[in-house]
Task: structure prediction
Amino acid sequence: MHIPAHIIVDEGSDLLWEQFRDAVRGLGWTADDNQSVFQVLALLPSLPSTRCVFARKDDDGSFLGCLVWMEYDELAFIGDYICVEELRGAGIGSRMWNRALERIGKGKILALRGAPAMAPKYAARDTPVELSRLRTNILTCAEMRETCDSLNPSTSPILLKSTLSPVQIEELLEFDQEMTGRNRRDLLVPFLASPSFECAVQLNAKGEIAAWAGITSTGFEKDHLFKLGPVYASSLSQFASLTKSLIPFCERASCDSKIAVHIVTGTVGERELEPLLS
Result:
């Protein structure tokens, strides 16, 4: 194996970020945090919580690998850790990992998302505790609509993104922060402005936002695959009404569109929702 002369750097150039996005596209991932893979990739360099370590060639500065993580208060969450295929096992990944941990330091909780096959390797190093797994359920639009109808959808008012006033958008951002405990404005505002993202909010009797859900294209147009998420609802009937209102957005792309629902093990979604989707 020929290992080109390279360097580990703490910041990504425009070229490195572009080649990183191309590398992720080649992997076909659809399980990004809660929105379209490609949109998240485009936003990463500009988000204030983003941290990164890149491996690049000495001669032309091109991409060899990277480790990207987000820092929120006491948490460092590693979301992307990849190396070009022909150099895997050459030690470049370990060098990036060690540099990232130097920068993260000892004062933060370290978490990461990885493929199940890699879990033993990560557990043997710096992340020994597995908290949960992410399972994917894929339904056709017809199957999703049938599932929603079986759940007695709530009849409370539903508003789609296009009908939200500026005040209601602000209320949505505040509601999301209340649900997640994080100010995600920097991430959500661009999504709310994107034509490939749709959302629905449900109002209570006082006209206040009581639940919301989003759906977006995964970016793989030929697959007509959409991802449902986030969903913040207090009942299955709320989930049903929100989700059903978003199905036409997928059907406008293709009558063959499918919807992916990622469910985290150990959650109420696994106990109550996944058996219905399966």
The first strand starts at residue 6 and ends at 9.
